[in-house]
Amino acid sequence: MTVDLEDWFHILDFTETEEIFKWGEFETRIDEGLDYILSALSDTGYRATFFVLGWIAEKHPHVIKKILAAGYEIGNHSYSHLLIYKYKKEIVKQDILKSNKLLQDITGERIKYFRAPGFSIKRDTNWFFDLLSEMEIQIDSSIFPTSRGHGGYDGFSSTLPCKITMGGSIIKEFPINTFSLLRKNIVFSGGGYFRLLPYSIQKFLYKKSDYVMTYFHPRDFDYGQPILENLTQYRKFKSYVGLKNSRNKFEKLLHDFEFIDIKTANEQIDWDNAKTITL
Questions:
Q1: Which DSSP string do the residues of 145-187 spell out, in sequence order?
Q2: In whole angstroms, what is the distance from residue 15 CA to residue 85 CA?
Q3: Best-predicted range by mean pLDDT (14-23, 145-154, 213-222)
Q4: CB 270 within 8 A of CB 163
């Protein structure tokens, strides 16, 4: 179970919200969805890993303290929600380092986990894994092993936890899982996919999968969030579909399945026998 901690206006590839200097102009609603997620998890006793946007940690440190007080672990989700494939290595490095410092100052612990915004790792950004190793990130969950709008590593040879080696460094990878249907790899376990698909289909796919990596956002459970103007109809559909019923669906999911955090999964996996992918 993972949560990408960002606010309702952190929508990718939308001119009116992609510039960080504009973010202060929007209403803050980070507590709305987060409080619901924390309450729902508390009722079950399940563990989750929260990938936190550095900007959120800087502007709203109380939400990080709230997560820590509830006993959950923190990972890095970049500082400025940048799409990795759009930037040079040095810019990405400085962005991640800035977020790492903010998070480490609040948590008092070294940050060991990372997830790229929009799962924006492609074949031509393999340098990203060397970068994570330089910063002593041990575990990544940025690989989306099929095509998607914000990157996607189509053809990545594992949909299960694996080890990525590059230049002598090793990163443990928890990719987003896919389900093969009619020769196509489909995703169902988080974000808009979770909100869009009927719960009966999701339940079936969960039961058929040996490994599921979820990813939710506070905005996925905030039915009262504003609707951004000037979005295309397609983007409105992707951003707001299923909000009305998402909490009910999430509670069914927590009732029907058991979830663990990345720390626990890491301890349970036999990494010596896990697949190794050399880039």
A1: -S-BTTB--TT-S-SS-EEEEETTEEEEE-PPP-EEETTEEE-
A2: 17
A3: 213-222
A4: no
Residue 148: strand pairing partners: 151
> pLDDT band at residue 212, thresholds of 50, 70 and 90?
very high
The structure tokens listed for 220 are: 């996925």
- 149-186 confidence digits (pLDDT tens): 777 898 898 999 999 998 788 999 999 999 887 777 88
Placement of tokens 């058929």 in the chain: 208
Whole-angstrom Cα distance, residue 236 to residue 161? 33
Cβ atoms of 278 and 166 closer than 8 Å: yes
The CATH number of the domain holding residue 70 is: 3.20.20.370
What is the rounded end-to-end Cα distance, in angstroms, of the chain? 27
Reduced DSSP (H G I as helix, E B as strand, rest coil) percent helix, strand, coil of the chain, to 5: 45, 15, 40
Domain count, the chain: 1
CA–CA distance, 33 with 39 (Å, rounded to integer): 10
| Two tokens, residue 178 | 């896919």
Alpha-carbon separation of residue 196 from 33, 56, 86, 157, 244 (angstroms): 18, 27, 28, 27, 11
What lies within 8 Å, CB to CB, of 153 at 6+ separation is: 121, 122, 123, 143, 144, 145
What is the C-alpha separation between 102 and 95, in angstroms, rounded?
Answer: 11
Domain that holds residue 103: 2-278
Please give the Cα distance from 259 to 43 (Å, whole number).
Answer: 13
Pairwise pLDDT comparison (45 vs 152), residue with the higher score: 45
Question: Over the chain, what is the mean pLDDT?
Answer: 95
Model pLDDT, residue 207: 96
